[in-house]
Write a structure and sequence with these properties.
Elements: H1 5-27, H2 29-38, H3 44-66, H4 71-94, H5 113-127, H6 140-172
């Protein structure tokens, strides 16, 4: 059993992550469709519907992760989605196609092993949401801690994303192998 703060921090952080991911895909759905097509995993006949459905699945996770009653289900779907994304990246890395845009955000980012690690860690975090929680009341201090820990996780995520992007840039300029 885990303290109730952990699921609150993780579910809030994942909801924020999926909101940003869905927002990016919904704001320029044609671009996302092209990114999805570049993976060469979705049949042409399903490409448009997949590009339209995925952001709405992600957006629904935003709300489902925040509702205690639906949190375990949403966490399972989130973990499955993150693993599916990682597998799509792994297939293309195995094909030697690291230059395609991962489709993860507003800024183009080539596929890398670090993105696989990131998605694996995020999926593991999502699965923590299915672990039973200790029964105790949540105090105002707890809510402040949730906000602070969520902010720290968001900043750490942004920092790791920047490191991955910088690593890719250095690799593209031949400064790193």
């Amino acid at each position: 059993m885990i303290d109730p703060l952990l699921p609150l921090v993780i579910s809030t952080s994942l909801a924020l992550l999926f909101f940003m991911a869905a927002r990016h895909k919904l704001s320029d759905n044609r671009r996302f469709e092209a990114q999805l097509a570049a993976y060469q995993l979705v049949p042409e006949s399903l490409l448009r519907i997949s590009a339209k459905a995925l952001p709405w699945i992600e957006m629904s996770l935003v709300f489902l992760l925040l509702i205690p009653f639906t949190r375990a289900f949403a966490a399972s779907v989130a973990a499955a989605l993150l693993v599916a994304y990682a597998m799509a990246m792994a297939v293309n890395l195995n094909r030697g196609r690291s230059e395609i845009d991962c489709g993860c955000g507003d800024t183009p980012q080539p596929l890398s092993v670090m993105l696989l690690v990131r998605n694996t860690v995020l999926a593991a975090g999502a699965l923590l949401l299915v672990v039973p929680v200790i029964d105790r009341s949540i105090t105002t201090i707890d809510l402040v801690l949730v906000a602070l820990f969520t902010a720290v996780l968001a900043m750490a995520y942004l920092m790791v994303e920047m490191l991955v992007k910088n690593h890719s840039l250095l690799k593209n300029f031949g400064l790193r192998k």
